[in-house]
Design a protein that fits this description.
Blueprint (H helix, E strand, L loop, with lengths): L1 H20 L23 H14 L4 H4 L5 H13 L15 H12 L4 H13 L8 H17 L6 H10 L5
Length: 174
């Protein structure tokens, strides 16, 4: 029994090390500054928000989203970058926004779901995810940690031990 526990502890520690090394990569594309896969489509708000905030921070424009009184030219550049990172199916929400702050707030109101239904859906996805569905260990860990990141973004973070336990629970017995 002690040997099994020690093996599980080692596996959890190895998974925690993998989680610590996991760093999202944001690549710039020719239009909008974000790769097409990161453009907001109405279903990926959490991922888009993370990527877009980092893109605006890198461009020195994040303050345009946080503040009311900013340089007009910088604000328009930030607004354009936000607008160019939205797929047409989701752009109706910001067409009338005059500032980057207004656009960001309209998108937040339209797509950020902190409610009970969202939380239950994320927990359900988290506990139902199985290694066999993902094709590789990397894809499996990415899926689990992605859901954990979404839970954190709505104020329900999971500690690394819990995430490691969930990962182990979704692995095949053999």
């Amino acid at each position: 029994m002690d040997q099994v526990v020690n093996q599980l502890v080692e596996q959890v520690q190895a998974l925690q090390a993998q989680l610590a090394l996991r760093k999202p990569m944001v690549l710039a594309s020719a239009v909008g500054g974000l790769p097409e896969s990161k453009h907001l489509d109405g279903t990926n708000y959490s991922e888009w928000k993370f990527a877009m905030k980092n893109y605006l921070v890198d461009a020195g424009l994040w303050h345009c989203v946080e503040n009311e009184n900013v340089d007009h030219e910088l604000d328009q550049r930030a607004l354009a970058k936000i607008n160019l990172s939205i797929k047409p199916c989701a752009s109706g929400d910001v067409r009338k926004a005059m500032t980057a702050k207004q656009a960001w707030e309209k998108l937040r109101c339209a797509y950020e779901d902190n409610g009970l239904v969202r939380r239950i859906g994320l927990y359900s996805s988290l506990f139902k995810t199985r290694f066999e569905e993902c094709g590789s260990m990397t894809a499996y860990i990415d899926r689990i940690t992605g859901i954990a990141d979404q839970l954190e973004s709505i104020g329900k973070p999971l500690d690394n031990e819990t995430v490691g336990g969930i990962i182990l629970g979704g692995l095949p017995i053999e």
